[in-house]
Design goal:
alpha/beta; 19% strand; globular
Length: 272
């Protein structure tokens, strides 16, 4: 696996930002055990997973706290891990335009520098906690761009999450007045995933397949149950799983593997 830590100036964010990228390449295990390495060749293109961090996190979390590099190598998929601060993956009212950066600028930047496919059927997004919401938000914001979106312990019932933080039931570093011009008017807006999904469905646009998992002892469990109910009633293609576990990296390291197994991954590189 080739690992790249990239720092570049983002015209959208108007500051330098970091992104970790892993690309499948032959390794010692494959050579010593005479495994097939024909996936790596001039002109090869790889399916790509944009992998989002949670609150308090950054672009380095998945690399430092899970074995995502090993899992990605086993599945021969490229993985892109950006930073989005505590933005909840919004174009902030007072702050940076993270949603635009992640759905427009970053994919163009990655596709220009790395051998990843540009096709929708080869482009996926996943995340944990705040990033679980972010994954569904990105995919529903640009449904022609992402075939699949996966949430691990995600704050996917956004209205429920906001209310829970207001009442102290869930803690978080979120400044709602910085994220939204009117934090009391989120319901029905594009930040409300249920409203956004209904809007995309009414528009007749292709909807991404969704994956959702949560630990049964996780403090987001009830939020996830409501999101599951709402998305199912909207008729979205949703795969749901729950397991013993809490809101921690042991859970996410174990179940990002479920996400990779769920994705429609090719057996080798893909054609453009």
């Amino acid at each position: 696996m080739a690992f790249f830590q990239v720092n570049f100036f983002s015209p959208t964010l108007r500051f330098g930002t970091d992104v970790n990228v892993v690309i499948p390449t032959p390794n010692a295990d494959e050579l010593m055990n005479h495994k097939d390495t024909s996936y790596f060749h001039t002109g090869a293109k790889y399916q790509v997973l944009y992998l989002l961090h949670g609150s308090y996190g950054d672009y380095s979390d998945w690399m430092r706290l899970t074995s995502i590099e090993k899992y990605a190598q086993n599945h021969k998929i490229a993985v892109v891990m950006p930073s989005a601060s505590n933005s909840f993956y919004q174009d902030m009212y007072r702050g940076s335009q993270y949603l635009t950066y992640l759905t427009e600028e970053l994919p163009e930047f990655i596709e220009s520098l790395f051998p990843v496919s540009r096709k929708r059927e080869n482009t996926f997004v996943a995340g944990l906690s705040m990033g679980g919401y972010g994954a569904w938000r990105l995919a529903l914001q640009k449904p022609e761009q992402y075939a699949c979106a996966a949430s691990l312990s995600g704050a996917v019932d956004f209205l429920g999450t906001v209310e829970a933080t207001k009442h102290g039931e869930i803690s978080g570093p979120f400044k709602w007045e910085a994220l939204f011009e009117n934090p009391d008017a989120i319901e029905g807006s594009d930040a409300d995933l249920f409203a956004l999904a209904a809007k995309r469905k009414a528009e007749g646009r292709p909807l991404p397949k969704l994956f959702q998992c949560v630990g049964t002892e996780d403090f987001t469990y009830n939020i996830n149950q409501n999101a599951r109910k709402q998305m199912t009633e909207l008729g979205l293609d949703l795969t749901y799983a729950e397991h013993p576990g809490i809101h921690d990296w042991d859970y996410w390291d174990a179940h990002i593997q479920d996400v990779l197994n769920w994705l429609p991954l090719a057996e080798s590189t893909v054609a453009e």
